[in-house]
Amino acid sequence: VQLMESGGGSAQSGGSLRLSCAASGYTGSRYCMGWFRQAPGKEREGVALIGDNGRARYEDSVTGRVTISLDNAKTTLYLQMDSLKPDDTAMYYCAIGYRRIGIACRTAQSEYDYWGQGTQVTVSS
Predict the structure, then answer these.
(1) How far apart are CA 93 and CA 87, in angstroms?
(2) Residue 36 CA, distance from chain mean position
(3) SS3 for 95?
(4) Cα-based angle 32, 93, 125 (whole degrees, multiple of 5)
(5) Cα angle value 83/61/110 (rounded, 5°)
(6) Is the distance from CB of 63 to CB of 82 less than 8 angstroms?
(7) Do the Cβ atoms of 8 and 35 come closer than 8 Å?
(8) Where are the beta strands (DSSP E) in the chain?
(9) pLDDT tens digits, residue range 62-89?
């Protein structure tokens, strides 16, 4: 399985960025895909998740500003980020893991088996 993020860069506060994650090699029909981020000096945290059931969930600080989506071919994961804030500055990673029956996608990183290398997002005020 390979995941490759792109779309990071620099933006002004209030601006927008769209991150992409090209996914290949995952053959399971059940999955959770997610965007995580790690700011300098902080632990990596979940930002947005989406499952094979189409259900999405968001971390509180990004709710209303961020949209996670998956293309119809299920090969590219997106993260549309609007109204960016300096606190959004971080390395952003995409990840994928198996979704167990009856279990919603969760931000527990141990549940994600494959990770990309990350793409840097820097927001200036």
Answers:
(1) 16
(2) 5
(3) strand
(4) 125
(5) 125
(6) no
(7) no
(8) 2-6, 9-12, 17-24, 32-38, 45-51, 56-58, 66-70, 76-81, 90-97, 114-115, 119-124
(9) 999 999 999 988 899 999 999 999 999 9
Mean pLDDT of 51-66: 95
**Three-state SS at 86:** helix
Report whether 81 contacts 17 (CB < 8 A).
yes
> In 3-state terms, what secondary structure has residue 61?
helix
Where does the chain have alpha helices with state H? none
Report the amino acid identity of residue 25: G
Cβ-based neighbours of 24, under 8 Å, separated by 6 or more = 1, 2, 75
Separation of CA 32 from chain center: 11
